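Example 835.
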Amino acid sequence: MATRLNPVDVLLVGYGWTGGIIAKELASTGLKILALERGGPRDTNPDFLEPAKDDELRFALRHELMQDVSKETLTFRNNRAQTALPMRQLGSFLPGNGVGGAGVHWNGVTWRFNPWDHSARSQTVAKYGEKIIPEGMFLQDWGVTYDELEPYYDKFEKTCGISGKAGNLNGAKIAGGNVFEGPRKNEYPNPPLKQTHGGALFEKAAKELGYNPFPTPSANASRVYTNPDGVTFGECHYCGFCERFGCEVNAKASPHFTVMPIAAKNPNFELRTHANVMRVLLDSTGKKATGVVYVDARGREFEQPADLVVLSAYALGNVALMLWSGIGKPYDPVTNAGVVGRSYAYQASSGATVFFDEKTWLNSFMGAGSLGVNIDDFNAGNYDFEKMGFIGGGGIGSSTSGARPIQFRPVPPGTPRWGADWKKATVKHYLHTGNVSNQGSNMAHRANYLDLDPTYRDIYGRPLMRMTMDFLDNEQKQMRSLNQKCAEIGRAMGGAIVEPRTNPIPYSIVPYQSTHNTGGAVMGADPRVSALNKYCQVWDVPNVFVTGACVFPQNAGKNPTGPVGALAYWIADALKEKYLKKPGALVPV
Amino acid sequence: MQEDKSVDRRGFLKVVGGASAVAGAAAATQPGTAAAQTPMQHNMPAAAAGAASDRLSGWAFFNPDEAAFVKAALDTLIPADATGPGAVEAGCATYIDRQLAGAYGRGARLYLQGPFAQGAPQQGYQLPLTPAEHIRIGIADVNAYARKTKQKLFQDLAPADRAAIMTEVDTGKAELANVAAGGWFNMFLALTMEGYFGDPMYGGNKDKAVWKMIGFPGVPGMYSEVIEQYRNKPYPHTPKSIQDFA
Ligand SMILES: Cc1cc2nc3c(=O)[nH]c(=O)nc-3n(C[C@H](O)[C@H](O)[C@H](O)COP(=O)(O)OP(=O)(O)OC[C@H]3O[C@@H](n4cnc5c(N)ncnc54)[C@H](O)[C@@H]3O)c2cc1C
Ligand code: SF4
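Predicted structure in complex with flavin-adenine dinucleotide:
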């Protein structure tokens, strides 16, 4: 039997980027706030000190900072005709675990989604008519526009000290920035990072081909920076151990040293680590959450009552908690009814590996998680869907995030995987290979969804969440078409050998692709096709709010955390300015 | 590896195996008696002669036959040549031995609950085995395959024959008794590469020879002052590893 604890006003399930932002923002309310985090505490010192933090085996391959799938995982299949099997090892994506969540080991590429992404359906239909939307594709608006989110994007960029260059200041287009971005009120807080040779080659080639290159907006600080909350960042060392690693100098924005120390100053805030939330409790009406049940490090069960519950347990964790708790109607792909688990999407990426001759020195071991150059010419609504034959597009760029040698060993096509010739090729290309990558969007589709597995369970006895997911026709066309654009740029960069590639088709859970899992509990204006209203409040259970990329109705050709962070500020504002003044549904059903 | 003449070793193991059984029984009543230990001590120096560096590191997981197989396999996958060190001299056998003896090998961070099914390749690893069990069973399988097709243990074959067998295992052409050839090979190759390119702290990449060979400066990376200066130029450096700071 669970021990019942004293109630709190606000309960946060999971303490990563979104949990940290909301805890900090709600401090001014004077309410009693409790964050429950399944993993342990962590800090820059002593957890991310050099040289121990630069341990490729421990952090990049054995995933020390990430979810332990021997305890909690999911099952996967490509389609309903297959039997889903457990993801027995981490692979395709790497959900975080512990204080700071995946925010401590992300790359820091920090976008604003384009205005089209937030209003994908209405803008597409206005331009091409309904007929362009393929059978089975759910193209949906977010219920909140880019203009409404602009101040919140701005806030998150300042919190993180983003290094970049504006391409649209109050409607004025600026060459050298992203001219396709929505109008922004302010320039980025920091100038772009230093450029590598690979980046310079990409920029030149893209310009020659008539595209509009700009530096990747980066949460790796280009200079010493103090954010509006008074938190100081160090300057990035370009250490090359960034993606999957902590940062020694606090140059990579992470909740653990930005929002969380401020949240912790609030005497009404408490964090409990090693507290794994099993489910949210509902009252007899099923329309009100009364708290949660969690299990501590000793395996003891506690009932924690709360007036308001915020799910901030990463996109996948949030959807799983809703399914386990009976919050919202689960999606049924046969009848196409229900909303929880609906619209699961990912990142349909492709690209080209660019092998240069031995006189071209890329030295890619010098790099930073989000160091790169991009073009948005084939992304969002910036190209002709009819001509290209697909919706959504992708962001194309060349990045230099490091060249850690267990994982970065490019060899040209036709090279054997082992033996003397393999070794020779590895040595020949290590310092002379670059990339052009397409971070492809993934539209939501009736065939891709999340529900509960009938067979497999986690160590707590809960059914595993089941992922049914494949790259469908629209995404396959997008990946195969845009990798040709990538190859074209690669050749213009002077690549001696240019090898186009796509993410595996059919989608595979095995190789790492991105930790950009989206959808499953999407926001919107229509409760028949969205689990949440425009404030990310559950339509059916108004005292539960949901954060994270699970709220995206489809995934853009961009990394998710810019809008995830902006939405966390947006939700916090809605709570402070609206909900807490008058608890209840913020949008009438 | 020449000293690991398999017939001698197998004969040796028969003796020791028998003796151990007796020793075990004796030890149960008379722990640590000289009688119980004599056969082992008597045979030990001869068996280990010439394998000085291995004797220094010792085997935490592999038995001597398996260790001989692993070294032969590593020598096949990454031979020593003019380009750079071989996997054996780089210490990959020790690396793999330690990994399999440790948390990774014993199944840490691996979901091992049933039911089990083979599934599609895109569903990933689906064996009811820890990596240590998988590698061990596969070694025996590949050796059985070598005996069947070439009448010798893998480690006793000439380099060209070993390479031929490894190719058949790699491509899945080899029918193995227990494990799927391709899946086993992928795991073995991944471990080999981890040891070869990883921090010397873990037992492979001895003297950072592999990092020197490819031009990776190691850790910690402090490049903010040089990243622009060395654009399109070779960067002079002497690699450092985590171990160097210990
Ligand atoms: C290697 C890597 C690189 C990335 N690079 C980028 C990038 O360059 N750009 C970008 O935009 N995004 C990137 N991301 C994604 C980014 O990290 C996430 O979008 C972001 O952290 C999401 O914030 P969140 O609050 O939703 O989840 P998280 O920050 O992951 O926090 C969720 C927390 O909830 C906890 N939790 C989960 N379930 C429970 C439970 N039941 N009970 C208690 N606690 C629970 C988890 O342990 C975790 O600490 C990357 C991710 C990874 C792994
Ligand atoms: S590359 Fe920069 S931001 Fe990333 S971990 Fe290294 S120093 Fe920190």
